Amino acid sequence: MGRMPTVDDVASAANVSRQTVSNVLNSPEIVRESTRERVQEAIDRLGYRPHASARRLRTRTSSTIGLRLDPLRDGISGAVLDRFVHKLAEQADARGLRVMIFTANGAEDELSHIKRLRDGSDIDAFVLIATFHGDPRISWLIEHEVPFVSFGRPWGSTTDDHRHRWVDVDGRAGVRDTVQHLRASGAQRVGYIGWPSPSGTGDERRAGWEEASGFDTADLERYQVVTLDGVDEGVRSARQLLAMDAAPDAIVCASDSLALGARMAADAAGHLDLPVVGFDNTPVAAAVGLSSIDQPLDEVVASALTLLFGPEGGIVRPNPDSNEEPTHRLLVPRLVERRSGHRALGEITGA
Amino acid sequence: MGRMPTVDDVASAANVSRQTVSNVLNSPEIVRESTRERVQEAIDRLGYRPHASARRLRTRTSSTIGLRLDPLRDGISGAVLDRFVHKLAEQADARGLRVMIFTANGAEDELSHIKRLRDGSDIDAFVLIATFHGDPRISWLIEHEVPFVSFGRPWGSTTDDHRHRWVDVDGRAGVRDTVQHLRASGAQRVGYIGWPSPSGTGDERRAGWEEASGFDTADLERYQVVTLDGVDEGVRSARQLLAMDAAPDAIVCASDSLALGARMAADAAGHLDLPVVGFDNTPVAAAVGLSSIDQPLDEVVASALTLLFGPEGGIVRPNPDSNEEPTHRLLVPRLVERRSGHRALGEITGA
DNA sequence: GTTCGCATTTTGATCGATCAAATTATTCGG
DNA sequence: CCGAATAATTTGATCGATCAAAATGCGAAC
Fold this sequence. Notes:
The structure is a homodimer of 351-residue chains. Chain A has 351 residues and is an alpha/beta fold. Helix content of chain A is 46%, strand content 15%. Chain A is built from 15 helices and 12 strands. In chain A, the strands form 2 sheets. A 6-stranded parallel sheet of chain A has the order 2-1-3-4-5-11, sandwiched between helices. Chain A has a 6-stranded mixed sheet with strand order 7-6-8-9-10-12, sandwiched between helices. The N and C termini of chain A lie far apart (64 Å).
């Protein structure tokens, strides 16, 4: 394999100067059409491709997004982030951006990675996932004016800092709509299985249930179970709810793991028609025919990139100035119903 | 944020020349100890980090691995590749390598991405996953002497081409060992649920079952079901097997999706103790307590990197010369048993 | 005390592109 | 047909590092 052609090679092949070749690539509108065609023809004929590192050295931008992969989760819910990663790669590509991934043990470790990648001019902007209360990454990035966007709203103090661009899914609205839908479909008492507080996302989802459940304070206590995530936990919690005097006739869960357990417990207890709804619409939910609240990841990713780079561009925008455009987006998830009309898990296990 | 320090800044701070600073970073052994310390101190004090693009421009290497993410799978099994991606990022990091991801629609599209990334000197080496029979990527990469390694053996003609470095998991041995183990534990007739031929991995797994099953030709036909992947398909296939006259008393499946379906069908039919084994040991298998054959992904990734870069280095090695060292590794998966002693799916649904 | 050899450090050139400014070509009004 | 204004193109410098080769220092041998 011979040496790769450079701008100079193309330039002499097309009888123009380097800069003109560069202009054809980067600002074609300022080059006369006849010249542009001639240069383009030379580019195609020689198979020229700009050397990414040389360009980056000069322009001081890398057109690369950094993304930290979270520690592997044993649960089912990890799949959401995998889908997110995939879609980010897809859409970044469409904008001519590259995605570089890395892993880290904890926020501190991640910060050192971020510094290294940032200082090496390897990466222009970062995408953060799984933000949490008092996240040190966020304050550091703001402090050092590193462009970033997070999937997950800022929990805590920096909520209204316009320098923090974020996208999130309104779990509260998603659960609220779902509960309303269930009640409109005839459910009298919608129970809830969720995670212990404080948990940013978990608390929001619970709040959605509380708003739409129609329960008084006492019943709000009775009709919810607080538990860690997991299938076993879902089984136990659902059993507990179904053993009540006026047992719930529908159950909403904070995750698909919990919902899967709840579904199994409900089926085992003979409640084949009891609606059970999970969250995240993971492959598992689809595989076993479980209703679930789906996060619109396409929109999440599109919004994240728009906040970072603007509607079209592929160039990093400076940190947003105070009160121009919104620096965040809150998207509404939608319920994917799978139970009615679909072969039910219960039809199988009970067959 | 002021301008980042460069080698020259460090050099004048430590009263040495640029090159000495460069040497401290890249060949510390040739710098006198006292000088090295002085320079190092200046590096630390100024917070200097080498500019990655500048270095790459000069050295013509990027220390970056390209990885294409497969199209999203709706099934449960996609999780294996996610774990692979994660572990690759982890181990690459430990070697000072970066991982860049991209997506593509089909092998042709992927090739054009590969060309672009390669020609832009963005990427030194590629990692391919999900290889298939007559994979055009492989021949192109070999042809153009682009370093690469695949997770997945070459199916078909190029099997013994030493220029193709690959790592794979010996599904045949994994299934064979599992079947032997089941028979040693008392199973008389081990059934098999797998995918239609031709399927590289699928055929290997079936072969493992055939070798260890102890069946004659006729029974080999009777005790296996051929079906596409999916939970529903697993349910149907298991029902079919369990309805036989001398029904199997253990079932091995080509995937966790199938196994989950089979488990559910077996439980529903009252065979709570019937061993069902899946493949891939996905989070779902762990969540519902399903036995599964686990791919040693840590070793897979470690082997892949070793084949590409050598035991320690972070520099791309030239394409392997003919018959020096092995250019592939075949790893043996191991069975993770979850049924015995573990709370069974049956205990719940049957409770 | 010179000289040779080795260890250590410095200097000049270069990687491939873009920026900023200078230069040349073209258009248009009068 | 000329000169100014604008369009198009070219030239010189530069981004930050490493390579290759030259220069310097230093101890041992003669």
